[in-house]
Structures are given as C-alpha cells and as structure tokens.
Amino acid sequence: MTIILDWQEIFMICLENTPNYAGVYLSGDVHDLSMLHASLLTIIGEEGEYAGYDQLRHRVLRLCSDLEDAMVGQGEMVFVPNGIDRETISSITLSEVSESNVNFQMKVLWPELLFVGFVLNDYVELAAKHKAHYWDPIHANVRQFQSLIGECLEKTIGWDKFRLIKSYLTPTFIGYYQNYVTQYIDYLTNKFLRMNSEKRLANISIAAKRIADKGDSYMRIKRKVEIASIQQGIEWKEVIIVENNIEEIEW
After folding, report:
1. Contacts of 78 by beta carbon, 8 Å cutoff, 6+ apart
2. What domain of life (predicted)?
C-alpha cells in the first residue's frame, strides 16, 4: 500500500524550556514556522470578525509577528540531525549534502504561550461553526500546536501537577474567553518574570490555572481595568495597568 502525504499540511514544531523557565524555545524549519503562521492567521479571522475577540486576536498576532521575524533569521538558528550519516552521504553523488538541517528558533514566555493555547480552543470552535468544519486541515494544524504545548507543559511540571489542570485544556464552552481582560496576562507575566528560575518552574501550573479559571485575582484586575476605564474616559481595551519595566528577561 502506498501512502501519500500532503506535506503542505504537516509541520514539526519543537518546544523546549529555556534555562530559567521564563518560557520555551519554539523551533522549526522555514516550512514548519510558515505552516504554523498561516494556520494561526487563518483560524483567528479578520479584525472584528468575532465580536469580543479582537484583544485575543492581537495576542495571537504577537506570536505570528515573532514567527515572521524568526523565518527571516532575526532569531536564533540551531542545527538538528536529519538522520543521514556520513556513510550514506559518501554514497550520494549530490554536490552538497549535510547531516543536519537548519531550524529557526524563537522564545515565547510561558504565560503568553499558555494563554494562546487556551484561547485557540474558542477560535477552533468559532471557525468550525461559522466558516469551516472540524475536519478542516487548518484546525488539525492548530490542534497539533496545542498538543505540543500540552506535551511540553506535562513534561515540565510533571504528571501530578498536570493531572490537576488538564481539564482546563478542554473547552468549557464556546465563547468562554470572549471579552477576556487581557491586561491580566500582562499582570501575570510581569509577576512571573520577577521570580527566580525555581519559583517560575513551581508557578507554571499556577499560571495555567489562574488564566483559565478566572478566579479572584482575575476578577480583581478586571474591576481595576473597568474603574480605570471610567476614570480615564477610555475603552477598557486601552487601559494599561502594568508597566513593563523589566529591562532584560533572564530566559
């Protein structure tokens, strides 16, 4: 039996923790990053397409922008084995053959990665309901990316912690993240980055829980944003409650 794969719909992204657990290295070749970039752009739709999702869309666009930078070599490059050994190379008559492939690498902060992973649940549901279907290849690519985030998360925090938060990976209902106060992600990120590496590792699962359950800390920031919005006479989306004054991230 001959199996024909459509490589236009397959990518192999790798996620690996940074040394101080600020986030992860996201790496892949140009094709991998391009497919992830195109899939994310497609799934989030156009500005204003889904009411109450523009702020979330901007967060995904940040990741897309970083992917664009990585694809043109503005990030780091790593060499990964491609499975071809020297003996095989010596038997090939091609003029240029290498044992390694070049992957492009970028960094993503843990709170941002978790948030994007969670909100993509809503986008898959919305896109399937309004303009596509659940078997759409773009949805499969997005789900694959989410599965990589989940796998990296489990390996990082361990099964005991992961089993307590894995229910958050399942969509609560369509629209759960609609009108989510994204300033809360800035608040969590700022707090997370001020921890040392040991505390960061211990708090990754806590950050996941706080992002997803909209608990007391989320509601406190939400009220703060709403009050500031009224006082300043601006939309809540424009309110800034956390100034990023961390000069250099210890990744």
Report:
1. 27, 102, 103, 105
2. Bacteria
The ranges assigned to domains in the chain are 12-179
Q: Among 134, 132, 220, which Cα is nearest to 171's? A: 134
The tokens for 91 are 């038997």
In this prediction, residue 7 has a pLDDT band, given cuts at 50, 70 and 90, of: very low
pLDDT in tens, 165-201: 999 998 888 899 999 999 999 999 999 999 999 999 9
Which pLDDT band, with edges at 50, 70 and 90, does 99 fall under?
A: low
DSSP assignment of the chain, as one string?
A: ------GGG----EEEE-TTSSEEEEEE-HHHHHHHHHHHHHHH-STTSSTT-HHHHHHHHHHHHHHHHHHTTSSEEEEEE-S--HHHHHT---S---SEEEEEEEEEEHHHHHHHHHHHHHHHHHHHHHTS-TT-HHHHHHHHHHHHHHHHHHHHH-HHHHHHHGGGGS-SSTTTTTT--THHHHHHHHHHHTS-HHHHHHHHHHHHHHHHH--HHHHHHHHHHHHHHHHHTS-GGG--------SS---
The dihedral of CA 60, 66, 72, 76: what is its sign?
negative
